[in-house]
Amino acid sequence: MARRRFFVPAVQAGRAELEGEPAEHLRRVLRAEQGQQFEISDNESVYLAEIDGLGKGKVTFRVLEPIAVEVPPVRLTLLAALVKFDRFEWIVEKATELGVESIVPVEAERTEKALERAAGKRIDRWRRIVIESSQQARRAHLPEVVEPVTFGVALGTGGDYRYFLDEQKGAAPILSSLPQAARRPSDTVCLLVGPEGGWTEGERTAALDAGWQPVSLGPQVLRAETAAVAALAVLGNAWYAGAVGEL
């Protein structure tokens, strides 16, 4: 079984500390003991470390050696229109597991205004979910969760490839829209996912005018959270495969 991985604020002079709820989880739920080995990340590098101190709300580690980290196959940014918070939290959790580099909440025309007003207060919770999901997925780096942006600002996000999911007929299947050129880990890919009810005609036109490519996951109408996760899985695996002929 792979060792559990935890994110720590910093590694200094070969030592690190974990405090608060994560430390209590390690101490009381996982029943960690002094000398037990875990992997830790300071969001820059990953290390094999052993516990050399346990106390209420605090666990200290001694670094044993660095661990090689694999380069992610692609740099993914998810721009997701705000939906009901329980569903948006699920998007954050699964997008983190699927390797996104950045999560951008988007205020679309059909986003409920109450969600827009309350979204800013949820950032800290979303970031905690990111930490928990990153540890579970054994990531080396945490994805960034930014403050909500307007649809217009979202369209200005730069990337080598920019796709927006569109439920209307005429959008090309996402697999046939993948680049035919060699795919590199340095490629930046942006995915824009709409709210419940889909995009308005104005948003659709604006996205096309801004150079975003409409893509489809098939004839079924999917919930926003289902569409986001399905599309991220396709894109991530396409770059992981490395070439069109290997899909």
In short:
By secondary structure, the protein is α/β, with parallel strands linked by helices. Helix content is 30%, strand content 28%.
Give the topology, please.
Blueprint: E1 5-7, E2 11-12, E3 15-19, H1 21-29, E4 37-41, E5 46-55, E6 58-67, E7 75-81, H2 85-97, E8 102-107, H3 113-119, H4 123-136, E9 144-145, E10 149-150, H5 151-155, E11 161-165, E12 172-173, E13 188-193, H6 201-209, E14 213-216, H7 224-241
Parallel strand pairs: 1-4, 7-8, 7-13, 8-9, 8-10, 11-13, 11-14, 12-14
Antiparallel strand pairs: 2-3, 3-6, 4-5, 5-6
Say which CATH homologous superfamily of the largest domain is assigned: SPOUT methyltransferase, trefoil knot domain
Give helix % range: 25-40%
> Which stretches of 5+ consecutive residues score pLDDT under 50?
243-247
Question: What's the N-to-C terminus distance?
Answer: 29 Å
Compute the average pLDDT.
92
CATH fold-type name of the largest domain: Alpha/beta knot
Q: Major sheet: size, sense and barrel closure?
A: 8 strands, parallel
Helical segment count: 7
CATH architecture of the largest domain: 3-Layer(aba) Sandwich
CATH class category name of the largest domain? Alpha Beta
